[in-house]
UniProtKB/TrEMBL annotation:
It comes from the Bacteria. InterPro entries: IolE/XylAMocC-like (IPR050312), Xyl_isomerase-like_sf (IPR036237), Xyl_isomerase-like_TIM-brl (IPR013022). The lineage of its organism: Bacteria, Bacillati, Actinomycetota, Actinomycetes, Streptosporangiales. PANTHER family: HYDROXYPYRUVATE ISOMERASE (PTHR12110), INOSOSE DEHYDRATASE (PTHR12110:SF41). This is Xylose isomerase-like TIM barrel domain-containing protein.
Length: 323
């Protein structure tokens, strides 16, 4: 896409189950679809194991020989490169012995920083700009934030930010509607606990809306901290603190927590959408936002269909020209 903004697309919506997005021909089909729709860059998502072969730097290199080999694979599908990669240090992975770590626990900080290094090095090698990270785990899995918790969380991300900056990669913390850092005030406190030279905010329009935060208003308030954007819509907000329910990843995001919500995340321009996409994008342009805008559907349905709908919306409603 050609615009004053830079547009990319998240691949996560294709990887809905460990056995459906493994073969290179399936990945080529997705990449060629995105290229045909005008998206020249993609965002990757961290994972684990051989079945998630776009989720770990070492597995990507096994499959493609080197970072340069991976870029050649993308370019053979007419995709120019990678904008960013999403990573959750609290997600146990096979490659690290299924260790469970928490950014709230200072005893885990050194291991989290070490865990970030392969991702930082890989992103630097392929010319990607942002490591996008989940700052803290889900609220239902831990007690409410204590007085010192946000300070501890900020400390580890400042340390990761130093590692990333040394490699020429940015770090952006991604607000998650299930996260223990949930309210606008908690998010402000987290930003205040981190060094703006090292740590930015990845603003996700749908996640903020579900969590009860107006993404346009929050961007206007803290636009100088926003270094990455995930752009998607939602028709629903969590009005009953469903994010605190046990197993919220399943009970809420996949089951609607009794409200029979089929899915929470929707394509741009969805009927009944709560995100004012046009106002948000106008605010990005007005403030000269320099980062990537990653369009995302996040397991919302048929991935190719949703990518087509998103591409149509960008061209027809936001006046973004195809490259």
């Amino acid at each position: 896409m050609r615009d004053t903004l830079r547009w990319a697309y998240a691949l996560n919506q294709w990887n809905i189950r460990m056995d459906v997005f493994v073969r290179h021909e399936d990945q080529r089909r997705a990449l060629k679809t995105l290229s045909a729709l005008g998206f020249g860059h993609i965002e990757l998502a961290a994972g684990t194991g051989r079945w998630d072969n776009l989720g770990r730097p070492e597995v990507i290199e096994i499959n493609h020989g080197s970072p340069e080999g991976f870029l050649a694979f993308l370019r053979s599908c007419s995709v120019n490169g990678v904008s960013s990669m999403f990573w959750d240090p609290g997600q146990p992975v096979e490659e690290e012995g299924w260790a469970f770590r928490s950014t709230r626990n200072r005893d885990d900080h050194a291991a989290i920083v070490e865990s970030a290094k392969p991702f930082v090095d890989f992103l630097a090698a392929i010319g990607a700009e942002q490591l996008v990270a989940r700052p803290v785990g889900s609220a239902w899995m831990q007690p409410p934030l204590g007085r010192d918790d946000i300070a501890a969380i900020g400390e580890v991300w400042n340390s990761v930010g130093k590692v990333a900056a040394a490699a020429g990669v940015g770090l952006a913390l991604h607000y998650d509607c299930l996260s223990a850092v949930h309210t606008a005030d908690e998010l402000r406190r987290l930003l205040d606990a981190t060094d703006p030279e090292l740590v930015g905010l990845a603003l996700d329009t749908a996640e903020l809306t579900i969590g009860g935060i107006d993404p346009v208003a929050f961007y206007e308030e803290r636009h100088e901290r926003v270094t990455h954007v995930h752009l998607k819509d939602t028709r629903y907000a969590d009005t009953g603190e469903e994010y605190r329910m046990p197993g919220a990843e399943t009970t809420m995001l996949r089951g609607g927590a009794g409200r029979r919500i089929e899915r929470w995340f929707f394509e741009l321009g969805t009927e009944g959408g709560l995100v004012d996409v046009k106002a948000f994008v106008a605010a990005l342009r007005r403030h000269g936002y320099p980062g990537w805008v990653v369009v995302e559907s996040d397991h919302g349905g048929n991935p190719a269909e949703l990518a087509m709908l998103n591409s149509w919306y960008l061209q027809q409603e936001l006046s973004v020209a195809r490259t």
